[in-house]
Design goal:
By secondary structure, this protein is of the alpha/beta class. Among the domains are: 64 residues, no CATH class; 247 residues, 3-Layer(aba) Sandwich (Aspartate Aminotransferase, domain 2), CATH 3.40.640. 43% of the residues lie in helices and 14% in strands. It has 15 helices and 12 strands. It has a 7-stranded mixed β-sheet with strand order 2-8-7-6-5-3-4, with helices on both faces. Strand 9 and strand 10 form a beta hairpin. Helix 7 crosses helix 9. The longest helix has 35 residues. The protein binds pyridoxal-5'-phosphate. The site of pyridoxal-5'-phosphate has 16 residues, from helix 7.
């Protein structure tokens, strides 16, 4: 292992240098990437030197998501303390299902869940760390389904169950509805207001219509930070409707749910404590490596009912509170907790708050830049870390593709209603004012 660790250190040092000198790798065409980088396999193994070369080549041609010119997705940058946590998780290689196998690592995950419940306002809640935000939404949906009809877990679905989410929510909801046997056709897409928030009056109207037709409404998927606009649904208003019709309210905070760590911005999720379940991705706003998702619910019993199964060959020590397999979707499960814990321990609650607040500060700077430069048309709203704009009326798809292909900048585009735009995501909290200015400079030069 020592020689591999030495190789690892040298390679990472080279990569970090490259990230600084060449933040965007020139993309290899998909038609030739396998041949160009020798990604295929052969019967015989490789000489050490050749192996090191192919590994290095693959690493050096990989998109640099931690660099200062990566603005393409809802994650970016690198929090070093979290990286160390994840590297240690790989070396330790525990599976998070039992205390016997995970030991203190199960305690770490439990501590994260407890603290999250406290921040959300679930007094006797519980949770788990699912493999991503999509799966967190899935678990929310399954709990809602089972809470509405306790027979489904054994008999399967016998009623027409309907669910509700906004037009601009994440695409995991239709997939999840299919996985859960509820069916994509039973989703009602609720209208947005002009700033991309779900319209509670339209939600109520749709629920009433379904009830009148004899259907069984059971679930509302709200969003704290929609994928494109970064909009926050009004949780209190949605909770009023859910309470009235006895629907489960899940808040998908994969993108921006980490505002719960910020005194200044947590008002965006006011009413959180009235929801039934909530999730956030630490690998988005908090900057841990992918993936680190937290799902919490105020209905501890429902989490166990929906996700536990007897397994004598697994649960052998009776450490129920730390046998986390009874509340998770998988059996063998990666340790996604340690990276968040190493970061959180290092910087404290105040440090996480700073990380979150800094992203809003960077977004304000970017919006200001667009407002002060006549070549830009701004489409985004305050209180969002997605800054949406167009430059000189250039088609955003053409612009983003050109910037990517020329190796200048990685940024994506999005759409709200019929308007397409470039979407700058200020999620990399290791960036400062200089990097935001550099973003615009790179865009203007490359356009
Ligand atoms: C609002 C929202 N929900 C869920 C997800 C999915 O999260 P993951 O990629 O971890 O599955 C995303 C991802 O961007 C998102 O923006």
């Amino acid at each position: 292992m020592q020689s591999e660790l030495k190789f690892f250190n040298e390679l990472v040092t080279k990569l970090l240098e490259k990230e600084r000198s060449e933040p965007v790798v020139e993309p290899l065409p998909t038609s030739s990437v396998i041949a160009d980088l020798d990604l295929g396999f052969s019967d015989e193994g490789m000489l050490e030197e050749d192996w090191q070369k192919v590994v290095e080549n693959a690493v050096m041609h990989t998109p640099r998501t931690a660099s200062k010119l990566f603005f393409n997705q809802l994650f970016g940058g690198r929090q070093p303390k979290a990286v160390i946590g994840d590297l240690l998780a790989v070396i330790l290689n525990n599976s998070m299902y039992t205390y016997k196998v995970a030991g203190p690592q199960a305690g770490i995950e439990t501590a994260i869940i407890k603290e999250t419940c406290k921040l959300v306002g679930y007094t006797d809640g519980d949770g788990t760390m699912p493999p991503g935000g999509s799966m967190s939404n899935y678990m929310g949906l399954v709990m809602a389904r089972d809470a509405k009809d306790n027979t489904v877990r054994y008999a399967g679905i016998t009623k027409r169950m309907t669910l509700y989410t906004s037009n601009t929510s994440h695409y995991s909801t239709p997939k999840n509805a299919a996985f859960a046997g509820v069916g994509r056709d039973n989703i009602r897409y609720i209208n947005n207001d002009d700033e991309g928030r779900m319209n509670p009056a339209h939600l109520e109207e749709c629920i009433q219509k379904d009830i009148a037709q004899g259907h069984t409404p059971f679930y509302v998927n709200a969003t704290a930070g929609t994928t494109v606009l970064g909009a926050f649904d009004d949780i209190n208003a949605l909770a009023d409707v859910c309470q009235k019709y006895r629907l489960w309210l899940h808040v998908d905070g994969a993108y921006c749910g980490a505002v719960i760590f910020s005194e200044k911005h947590k008002h965006l999720t006011a009413g959180m404590e009235r929801s039934d379940s909530f999730s956030y991705n630490a690998h988005k706003m908090l900057g841990t490596p992918l993936s680190s998702s937290v799902l919490v619910t105020k209905h501890k019993d429902q989490l166990v009912k929906s996700f536990s199964n007897e397994a004598d060959y697994l649960y052998q020590t009776g450490d129920e509170d730390f046998d986390l397999g009874i509340t998770s979707i998988q059996c063998g499960r990666r340790n996604d907790a340690l990276k968040l814990w190493t970061l959180w321990k290092s910087v404290g609650n105040k440090g996480l708050e700073k990380i979150v607040d800094h992203q809003f500060y960077l977004a304000d700077l970017a919006r200001e830049y667009c407002e002060n430069h006549p070549d830009y048309t701004l489409y985004s709203f305050p209180d969002s870390v997605s800054v949406c704009f167009n430059y000189k009326g250039i088609d955003p798809k053409d612009l983003c593709t050109k910037l990517y292909e020329d190796g200048n900048l990685m940024v994506g585009y999005g759409k709200f209603r019929e308007q397409e735009f470039v979407r700058l995501v200020t999620i990399n909290a290791t960036n400062g004012k200089e990097e935001i200015e550099q973003f615009f400079k790179a865009l203007e030069l490359g356009a």
